[in-house]
Amino acid sequence: MNIDPISIPDINDIKSAAKRLEGKVIHTPLLQSDALDVLTGARVFVKAECLQTTGAFKIRGATNALALLSEQQRAGGVVACSSGNHAQGVAEAARRLGISATIVMPSDSPALKVARTKRSGATVVLFDRASEDREKIANSIAEEENRTFIHPFNNPNVIAGQGTSGLEIVEDMQGMGLSIDRLLTPAGGGGLTSGLAISVHSVFPNAAIHTVEPIGFDDFKRSLEAGEIVSNENLSGSICDAVLTPEPGTLTFEIVKRHCSEGLVVSEASVRKAMRFAFEEFKLVVEPGAAVALAALLDAGQKYQGEIIVIMLSGGNADPELFSKILAEG
Fold first, then answer.
1. Are 195 and 221 in contact (CB under 8 A)?
2. 176-202 residue pLDDT tens
3. Is the dihedral of CA 153, 155, 156, 160 positive or negative?
4. 185 pairs with which residues across the strands?
5. pLDDT in tens, 272-328
6. Kind and range of the H or E run holding 184
7. CATH of domain 7-57+156-329
8. Which residue among 103, 106, 219, 225 has the highest number of C-beta atoms inside a 10 angstrom radius?
């Protein structure tokens, strides 16, 4: 696969994005739990992006991408496709900048995500995740209405924005005089993983970085093993809606294969357990797709004993009814 190297963001792009985002996003904390350290035999730090504006890291990439639009593009408005977190990020970034936004969302998106996207002033167009192509719909709207398509992950400005969360991790770890042995992160299309990898490896080049995905939707794991992009057979059927994508992006896969170790896969039961753990130990609401990295760490037991590990909790937009049910299972 030939990717124009100019399109691949570097650490300087991420640092520039961080300057654009000053005062617009939250520097989310790195949290610790004695219970988690005991269970794993490691020293674990949890990046709580579930506490971010709009409830997920996506506001970072959306804000950076929209800030870089020309005046003509701003006047035409934007269109995006998302199961909910990128939708909310683009909608809110557009509201702040006075830009019209249309968001293409799956009809099975959590009602909370749809409602919050509309609350930021965006027009929502629903589609069937199992039978319709969201990018085809979004590109059609872009062409018909002269809007700029803000891809949820295969966009260098979006990736650079997501990478600012990695800059915060690096700065906080350095402030404590610590390095990173291993990083686990949820992976959908790979925008977050790409940005994190560039940021973390700019300072800690030996850190092992793992994508984490739910069983049946492990396109990144299989793509890394194959050395080429491999698609998922199913497009729906998991509670982890935030990380359900057909396949890795061409741009994100190019970055991830340069930086990442083996991909990890977790069961729905492990995800539910991780959501309960995050609530009980950190008092955090974490949505299913955002809990997969914690799930993988809990599944690993003492495998990474003695290491310094960072895991990403990427979003907190859990459906209230589902979240209540999962807590009750404990």
1. no
2. 999 999 999 999 999 999 999 999 999
3. negative
4. 211
5. 999 999 999 999 999 999 999 999 999 999 999 999 999 999 999 999 999 999 999
6. strand 182-186
7. 3.40.50.1100
8. 103
Contact in structure between 59 and 52 (CB atoms under 8 Å): yes
Q: Beta-carbon neighbour count of residue 282 at 10 Å?
A: 19
Q: Where are the domains of the chain?
A: 7-57+156-329, 58-149
Output the pLDDT for position 235: 80
pTM of the entire predicted model: 0.95
* Alpha carbons within 13 A on the beta-carbon side of 213: 25
Q: Yes or no: say if 71 and 301 are a contact pair by the CB < 8 Å rule.
A: no
Q: Kindly report the backbone phi and psi dihedral angles of residue 211, in degrees, each rounded to the nearest multiple of 5, phi listed first.
A: -75, 145
Residue with tokens 């797709």: 289
Q: What is the mean pLDDT of the chain?
A: 95
83 compared with 290, residue with greater pLDDT: 290
Residue 3: pLDDT band with limits 50, 70, 90: very low
Same fold, 7-57+156-329 and 58-149: yes
**Token pair listed for 149:** 């398509």
Task: Compute CA 117 distance to the chain's CA centroid, rounded to the nearest angstrom.
Answer: 17
DSSP state of 53: G
| HSE, side-chain direction, 13 A CA sphere, residue 284 | 32
To which H or E segment does residue 11 belong? helix 11-21
Tokens of 232: 């998922």
- pLDDT for position 326: 97
Question: What is 133-162 written as a DSSP string?
Answer: -HHHHHHHHHHHHTPEE--SSS-HHHHHHH
Distance CA 325, CA 285 (A): 13
**How far is the CA of 140 from the CAs of 74, 114, 135, 154, in angstroms?**
18, 21, 8, 18
* CATH architecture of the domain with residue range 58-149: 3-Layer(aba) Sandwich (3.40)
Which residues, listed in sequence order, are joined to residue 299 by a DSSP beta bridge? none
